[in-house]
């Protein structure tokens, strides 16, 4: 084959390759232009879902179509802004807020409603519930909305302590827990007027009167009376008498137990007598008549004791119980109800979920005894409690166990 023929064949092949390449380029160009045209017709929308904003490019014509395109199902109480039938245009901002069902308990009265508010404070404001600084809200106002929210409204209690009156704000609780919270201690003989430690404070029962009873000993010097001694004298006529020795009074120290009620004396009793200077008896001679000598009767002191009986009844169920101390790492020693746990070492108290066991309730815990629900904890949710122990060894010994509990009030 000649060189000219070979050269002609090569030229023909090169032309064919060039045509194919050009065709491919043209197809790609058309496809790219088509994509550009399609993308160019999309709208850019700022979509906010549960507080997070994303940018969406879409061919959807309305807000409703946009949300369907994003697989978002809109429920009846959800908030969509702007409205679902709003036409879309580039730059439009769309927000979807999903509604949640909340069970709200106010002073143990429950109500259920659906809300789109995202903090506890906003939910309470929407529900028209005014919260004061003395109320207990769980979870706290600034926390995120929870399926269950509990509010315990505060009450103003009149406290009369030893005759002095003052007003104190507190939440409904037992008289025992209230006094512990206010660091009002009852002395050995002190009394409560009109209430007991087990009674529960409320709007209708908002007075606590502490009667201060003090028993003091007082010693008083008093005369010791002499006695008259009679002696038979056969030398005297019947019925006649003769003084043989004049009587002389002595001295005695008499001890009184004085009962003071709110600083005022209400009772005084002799508890002891001691002769410090003996009296000199009077001696009388009596003519042959014999006279019996009377002896003074002795006083008898009767002691009185106190007894108490455990209350019956109550709501009974089982809980998982752990233990803690006022001195644990990170603990302040002050309970959620404001009780100084370190200053009350003999106080029986448990941490509870107020949505299950109301704060201030008196309870009985298997293996622990009677206690007050006066604290909360981050891990104490549902049917869980934390029993207060004074030492780590006691807490470790308790461990974690399932126990029976009775809520008495």
UniProtKB/TrEMBL annotation:
**InterPro entries in the record, alphabetically?**
3D_dom, 3D_YorM, DUF348, G5_dom, Resuscitation_pf_RpfB, RlpA-like_sf
Q: Could you tell me the superkingdom of the organism this chain comes from?
A: Bacteria
G5 domain span: 210-290
- Where exactly are the transmembrane stretches of this chain? 20-38
- SUPFAM superfamilies given in the database record: Barwin-like endoglucanases (SSF50685)
Q: Per the record's keyword annotation, is Transmembrane helix included, yes or no?
A: yes
On whether Metal-binding is a keyword of this UniProt record, the answer is no
Per UniProt, which keywords does this protein have? Membrane, Signal, Transmembrane, Transmembrane helix
Q: Which Pfam families match?
A: 3D (PF06725), DUF348 (PF03990), G5 (PF07501)
Among CDD domains, the record links this protein to:
3D_containing_proteins
Protein name in UniProt = Ubiquitin-like domain-containing protein
The source organism is Savagea faecisuis
């Amino acid at each position: 084959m000649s060189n000219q023929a070979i050269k002609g064949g090569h030229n023909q092949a090169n032309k064919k390759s060039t045509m194919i390449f050009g065709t491919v380029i043209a197809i790609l160009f058309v496809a790219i232009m088509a994509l550009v045209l399609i993308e160019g017709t999309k709208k850019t929308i700022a979509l906010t879902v549960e507080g997070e904003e994303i940018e969406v490019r879409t061919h959807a014509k309305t807000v409703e179509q946009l949300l369907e395109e994003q697989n978002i199902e809109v429920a009846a109480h959800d908030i969509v802004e702007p409205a679902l039938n709003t036409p879309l245009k580039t730059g439009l901002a769309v927000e979807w807020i999903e509604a949640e069902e909340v069970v709200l308990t106010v002073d143990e009265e429950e109500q259920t409603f659906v809300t789109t508010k995202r903090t506890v404070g906003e939910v309470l404001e929407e529900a028209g519930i005014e919260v004061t600084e003395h109320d207990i809200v769980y979870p706290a106002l600034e926390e995120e909305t929870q399926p269950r929210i509990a509010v315990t409204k505060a009450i103003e209690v009149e406290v009369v302590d030893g005759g002095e009156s003052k007003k104190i704000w507190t939440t409904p609780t037992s008289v025992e827990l209230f006094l512990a919270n206010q660091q009002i201690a009852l002395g050995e003989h002190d009394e409560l007027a009109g209430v007991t430690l087990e009674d529960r404070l409320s709007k209708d029962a908002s007075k606590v009167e502490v009667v201060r009873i003090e028993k003091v000993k007082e010693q008083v010097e008093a005369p010791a009376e002499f006695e008259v001694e009679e002696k038979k004298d056969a030398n005297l006529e019947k019925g006649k008498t003769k003084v043989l020795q004049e009587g002389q009074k002595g001295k005695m120290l008499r001890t009184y137990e004085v009962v003071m009620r709110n600083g005022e004396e209400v009772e005084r009793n002799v508890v002891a007598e001691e002769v410090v200077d003996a009296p000199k008896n009077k001696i009388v001679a009596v003519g042959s008549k014999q006279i019996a000598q009377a002896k003074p009767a002795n006083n008898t002191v009767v002691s009185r004791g106190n007894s108490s009986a455990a209350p019956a009844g109550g709501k009974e169920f089982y809980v998982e119980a752990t233990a803690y101390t006022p001195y644990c790492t990170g603990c302040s020693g002050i309970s959620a109800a404001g009780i100084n746990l370190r200053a009350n070492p003999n106080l029986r108290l448990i941490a509870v979920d107020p949505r299950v066991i109301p704060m201030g309730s008196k309870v009985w815990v298997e293996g622990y005894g009677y206690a007050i629900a006066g604290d909360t904890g981050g891990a104490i949710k549902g049917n869980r409690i934390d029993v207060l122990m004074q030492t780590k060894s006691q807490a470790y010994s308790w461990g974690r166990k399932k126990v029976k509990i009775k809520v008495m009030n």
